[in-house]
Specification:
Layout (H helix, E strand, L loop, with lengths): L1 H12 L21 E7 L10 H4 L6 E8 L2 H11 L4 E2 L2 H7 L4 E4 L7 H10 L3 E4 L7 H14 L3 E3 L7 H11 L6 E7 L8 H6 L1 H12 L4 E8 L2 E2 L6 E3 L4 E3 L3 E7 L5 E7 L9 E6 L2 E5 L7 E4 L6 H4 L4 E4 L2 E2 L15 H13 L7 H20 L3 E2 L15
Parallel strand pairs: 1-2, 1-4, 2-3, 4-5, 5-6, 7-13
Antiparallel strand pairs: 7-14, 8-9, 8-12, 8-19, 10-11, 12-13, 14-15, 15-16, 16-17, 17-18
């Protein structure tokens, strides 16, 4: 019981330490410190994320001093790409032998994240980590504990959390532009990965957006299907990209939010339209639609009927300045996926606060994903934080 209360308090309160979003709308002050960065890649097993390694080359106040890759050719290529001579086949050797302030854990494959993150955190090195966070809540708990023990700051690769437009959306909701929030509707890309894989790989962004706007859910009820039938043990397989036990070509999840509203997430395999990949916030007086990214497409519909075809009301663009106003922000900082993340991580280190999308947010998004499979396994609504910290699909009875 004490553990559940601790997790609930932590997940709810973590966002209270954020810096104002105005800090992201202008270039930060020059860093007081030259941060020594070690890059971890794994060519052929998640590579270097979305070019996370090269992002550090664009941030003043940082210097890549070493790179590790367990693939010999990948290591050679990375050394040339980053102009680095200090290379390692084993990232643990790099962490032991090189004085580092920050470790950039770049591989997308999730099965490596726990070991890499714990190794860095236990040595007191701050972390930028590609999403998804990790495979299980048990692994997540270990990473959180390692960061807390040494006071390490961890930033997770959820770019929308760093978007100035996200704060604009929050302000519009607080101002009542869509009235009372009634529900959140999120969907994955619903391509060949639709269902369970889509939930893990891209659903993490949607879950992060839901939490950033509405807080951490209180409960989840979900069902997972394969070929129209509820997923059973025979449907479970080893997922790609190190996800672990995985199943389902369709997932449907409902979350109870702290304010009494409801959040939905659905994904079906090959459902035909990846442009549905977004989060819609439906209110009593309208809708806001938010896509993923640093300056994502954001739309506003001031229509209580939620139906432009009936009302004649048109969708309007939302910029960081507001509804229907031109976007004042532009440039490389808002185009390159990781630059704002890195800037915020450096500021978090210097100000002794949590990054905008931090280890607790990563834990929270992961819990929302795992809750889908746990609810399916138990056949009922599950309360969050979850008691079970293992992969529910590995525990199916039949």
């Amino acid at each position: 019981m004490q553990r559940r209360l601790f997790l609930q308090t932590t997940l709810t309160a973590a966002s209270a330490t954020y810096a104002p979003f105005t800090a992201l709308a202008s270039k930060p002050a020059a860093s007081k410190h030259l941060y020594r960065v070690g890059v971890i890649g794994s060519t052929g097993r998640g590579n270097y994320g979305h070019a996370m390694d090269r992002a550090w080359l664009e941030v003043p106040g940082t210097k890549i001093v070493a790179v590790a890759d367990d693939n010999p050719q990948g290591l050679k290529d990375a050394a040339q790409r980053l102009s680095i001579q200090n290379t390692f086949a084993d990232y643990r050797r790099m962490l032991d032998d090189v004085e580092l302030d920050i470790v950039s854990i770049c591989p997308r494959w999730v099965d490596q994240h726990r070991d890499m993150a714990v190794a860095a955190a236990s040595r007191g090195m701050h972390i930028l980590l590609e999403k998804p966070f990790c495979r299980t809540l048990a692994e997540a708990d270990e990473i959180v504990a390692a960061c807390e023990k040494t006071g390490v700051k961890l930033a997770i690769g959820h770019p929308t959390s760093y978007s100035p437009k996200l704060e604009t959306v929050r302000q519009l909701i607080e101002q009542g532009k869509i009235g009372r929030v009634l529900e959140y509707r999120g969907r994955g890309k619903e391509d060949r990965r639709g269902g369970g894989e889509d939930l893990w790989v891209l659903g993490t962004h949607i879950m992060d957006m839901i939490r950033a706007i509405g807080g951490h859910p209180k409960s989840c009820f979900a069902r997972v299907y394969q070929n129209g039938k509820p997923v059973a043990r025979k449907d479970v397989f080893e997922g790609p990209e190190g996800i672990g036990p995985l199943a389902g070509d369709a997932v449907h999840a409902t979350y109870e939010m702290p304010d009494g509203s409801i959040a939905y997430f659905s994904s079906l395999k090959n459902a035909g339209q990846s442009k549905r990949y977004a989060l819609q916030i439906h209110g009593s007086q309208g809708i806001i639609e938010l896509t993923e990214g640093l300056l994502p497409k954001v739309k506003y519909l001031g229509d209580a009927a939620w139906s432009p075809g009936r009302s004649g009301v048109r969708w309007q663009d939302i910029s960081s300045a507001g509804i229907g106003l031109p976007e004042p922000l532009s440039g490389r900082r808002y185009e390159a996926r990781y630059l704002l993340m890195i800037e915020d991580l450096l500021a978090a280190i210097e100000q002794d606060r949590q990054p905008r999308s931090n280890v607790y947010d990563a834990l929270g998004a992961t819990e929302m994903i795992v809750a889908v499979f746990e609810s399916h396994r138990l056949g009922r609504q599950v309360k969050l934080p979850l008691v079970n910290r293992q992969n529910p699909l590995a525990m199916l009875d039949s």
